[in-house]
Each structure stands twice: as C-alpha cells, then as structure tokens.
Specification:
The chain is built from 16 helices and 21 strands. The protein is an alpha/beta fold and 463 residues long. Helices cover 32% and strands 22% of the residues.
C-alpha cells in the first residue's frame, strides 16, 4: 500500500499518544483522518479542533460513510489496546480493509527518512523530545513522532520544513511494548535503559533484553548507537554486533556530565564528549535522570551538525514534556510536581532528584500503580523506591488493558514501604485527605488516569 495514494485513514484508538501523532502527520499531508476512541479526552478534543472527525461509540453506524464505501484506498490503523470484540474492528476485518498496527505505519512513514530512533524502558520520551526541540530550534528540516505532549509546542507531532534542500531528519520514540520498535529503520539509535518491564509481553527479562538486541541490529551500519552505561553493561559488547556505538552516562562513559548542580528550577552541567566540552549548560527540566537524557540528545545533534551555540540556546529553551517532572504549582510554602513515572527505576530517579532539590522539606508521594502484571512482577521494587518519600499515598491499580489478577492489589505494596507515613486512599477521597495532611512538597506519579486528579489538586493548592 502506497501512503500517498490513500483516500483517508481511520484510527481505532486515535486518542492514544502514539496514534494521535501519526494522525496529525496524515492530517498535515492533507489526507482526511477519522477515528474512534472509547472516551473523550483533552487530546481527542484537540484533534477534533484541528479538523479530524472522531466518534466515541463502538458501533458500525459511527464509521463515516465515505470510509465504508472505499476499502481499497482506506488505511485502518489500530492498537492492541482496542478490545478483541470491538464491533468496528470486526467490521474492518470482515470487509477487506487494510489493517496495520501503529508501529507498522510508523515504519512505513519513516522508511526512506534519516531516522533517529530513541528506545528504552524509561527516558525515551524526554530524550526524543530534546533531540526534536534542538533540531527544530536550530532550523533543521525535521519531523518528530513523540510519546508525550511537549510543553514548547503542545503537541506530540513536531514539524519544521526549512528552506534548505537538506533531507529531513525524523525523530521517533521506539516503543518496546509489543516489540513495536522492530518495525523501524533507524540510522541513529539511542538506548536509554534496559530495565525489565512488559513481562506480560516478553515472558521474562532475558527475552526483553533480546528484543533490544534485535532493535540494535536494525541500526544502519553507517549509523551509530548511543547507549547508556547501565544498558551497555546489561547487553554486553558482543550483543551490539558491528554497530558503531558510543556509551554515555552521568559520570562515566565516552559522553558524560561534569560539574552538575541541582537547583529548584533548573540543573546546570558541563557536557563532555569525544574531543568536545560544552560548559555551563542549563536544563530547565530538573532531575539528574533528565541531565543524562540531555547528554544523549546533545551527542546525537552534535553528530548531525548542530553548533555549540545552537545546542546551548536550544537546551536552555526546552520546557519539557507534559507529565515528565512537570511543575504544576510552586510558591514559598508549597510545591506540586506531576510525573508519568510508573516503573520502580523511574520512581527512584524522580524521587531522588526531588529530595536533592528540597532536602529540608517533607515529601509526599501519591502513586497509582499501572497494570496488575507490572505491580505483581515488581512489587518489592515499587515499595523500595517509594520509600524515598516521607509519606506515601497509594491509589488502586489502574488496569488499562488487563483483567484483575487474584491477590494482586495496591495494598500489597504497603508492608515493605518504610516511609514514616503510608496509606491506601480512594481517588474520590484524596482531596479531603490532602486537606487534612497539608503537604509541603507533593508529587503525583503514575501512567493511568491519575492525570485527571492534577487539575483538582492544583485548584485546591491555589486556593
């Protein structure tokens, strides 16, 4: 199927962060975009405002007539998050439509482009967003398909069509879930981390590591891999084959940081790479882990030809990604930060940075576990990382695509949490609980629907 000849595209699950980025790409190219999602969200409302036609009931009647009438020239993009008994999915399968998973379509779009693919069990959204912002702010021809909404552009799809004749560089977030990243064709690859995750898909940590080895094997031999020190140690040199690679890390590796200082609004550091030092860089997205993400991004854009001045200016103007160390409120008495962290290592990195920024203040962490399988597989890790907070509040598990597992619940994390104060709360009672406890530094963590509590919590703090 040739994408340029499409009559229109229909998305099953268009409200997903990765799906909507591809929808925006087709819409930008003038191809009509239609889609279904199970519920209205700020993202689907924004897509509709941009001109896409979206429905929220899983019925055949809601599929636009022009889509039904032209199966040969319609592409249907679907996500495994769509239930197997979906009426719309069944209709498309039974009537000869071309169905492609999101990752397959992303691979088709980027096949002939100079592709920077950013993989990792955590850190890939921020790292890919920094790469994209540095390229765009430097005026390079580029496009980016991201797994989060950037604060600079309010979108997960970034485009800059410069005046020069240089071929565009496309930045993609290479998702390991469902082995999606194996559909890509990277010229440059970044691997930020290889901690066990998605064991419901891979079966065990060894198979997940093999998935990353297979991804690295897709990188062009004329390209380069940038790999974080911990990930490099887990994969080992022989797993990298003949792919040229650069190892990076906070304090070790060919690329590393020196003179790192943690402030309450930004982190400052020196970038050190092969034959290059850029001193006094400022990143206004706090977190030691975000400094490490920035190191990989800087190394890549340095290879792509950005000057020191472009790197310095671009990094200082990067505002971050929605729900990645996002400062929701801050005054002299209270701080409220929201973050997408949903893996023990992400939580550990995030809370360690917050503690470094506010060493004398009481830290309250509200965490919503994501997936029954992930909670079961990493229960001890969750309890240990959450114990960095002075107080831990757990919400019920967000199931996402899963059915409940007997004996697996949020309360199972409480016994091993060593924080001075810990409890399990219902979402509907959370505001009353916070009013009574009066937190100083408050953080919300999780990849489920905890983001719907951010507004109400922020409104309470402001008043």
């Amino acid at each position: 199927m040739r994408l340029e000849r499409l009559h229109s595209v229909y998305f099953l699950g268009i409200g997903g962060i990765g799906m909507s980025a591809i929808g925006r790409w087709f819409h930008h190219r003038g191809i009509p975009v239609y889609g279904y999602d199970r519920q209205e969200s700020p993202l689907t409302l924004k897509l509709a405002e941009e001109g896409m036609q979206i429905n929220y009931e899983d019925t055949v009647e809601n599929i636009a007539p022009m889509v039904k009438e032209d199966p040969e020239n319609i592409l249907v993009v679907w996500t495994p998050a769509i239930p197997k008994d979906s009426r719309q999915l069944a209709y498309f399968r039974e009537n000869g439509f071309a169905l492609k998973k999101r990752a397959e379509v992303l691979g088709m779009i980027t096949q002939s482009m100079n592709t920077v693919a950013v993989a990792g069990t955590h850190g890939k959204t921020t790292t890919s967003s920094i790469v994209a912002h540095l390229l765009k702010s430097a005026g390079k021809n580029m496009a980016a398909f991201l797994g989060g909404l950037t604060q600079n552009y309010g979108s997960n799809f970034i485009l800059h069509e410069g005046e020069g004749r240089e071929s565009p560089t496309v930045v993609v977030e290479a998702d390991e879930f469902d082995r999606s990243f194996l559909h890509l064709h990277p010229n440059t690859g970044i691997v930020t981390s290889v901690d066990p995750d998605h064991l419901d898909i891979y079966g065990d940590a060894g198979q997940m590591v093999q998935g990353f080895v297979d991804f690295i094997g897709l990188i062009s031999r004329k390209g380069r891999l940038y790999i974080q020190t911990g990930a490099f140690n887990k994969l080992q040199r022989e797993s990298l084959g003949n792919v040229p690679h650069v190892v990076y890390g906070m304090s070790e590796g060919e690329v590393h940081a020196e003179n790192v200082s943690a402030g309450t609004l930004s982190f400052k550091f020196d970038y050190v790479g092969p034959g290059k030092r850029i001193s006094g860089l400022e990143l206004k997205v706090p977190g030691f882990h975000n400094v490490e993400n920035a190191l990989a991004a800087i190394a890549v854009v340095d290879q792509l030809g950005l000057t020191e001045a472009q790197i310095r200016e671009g990094l200082s103007s990067f505002k971050g990604v929605k729900r990645r160390f996002e400062f929701v409120y801050q005054d002299d008495k209270r701080v409220y930060i929201d973050d997408y962290a949903h893996h023990p290592e992400e939580i550990r990195a995030f809370l360690s940075s917050v503690k470094a920024m506010y060493p004398q203040r009481r830290l309250t962490a509200i965490f919503q576990p994501h997936l029954f399988t992930r909670t079961r597989d990493f229960a001890s890790g969750f309890s240990e990382s959450l114990s960095l907070a002075d107080e831990v509040v757990l919400l019920d598990i967000y199931p996402a695509r899963e059915e409940p597992i007997p004996g697996v619940h949020a309360e199972m994390l409480l016994p091993e949490i060593t924080a001075g104060k810990k409890s399990l709360q219902k979402k509907e009672n959370l505001l009353d609980y916070l009013k009574a406890s009066d937190p100083e530094v408050l953080v919300t963590l999780g990849a489920g629907d905890i983001d719907r509590l951010v507004g109400p919590i922020a409104n309470w703090i402001r008043t």
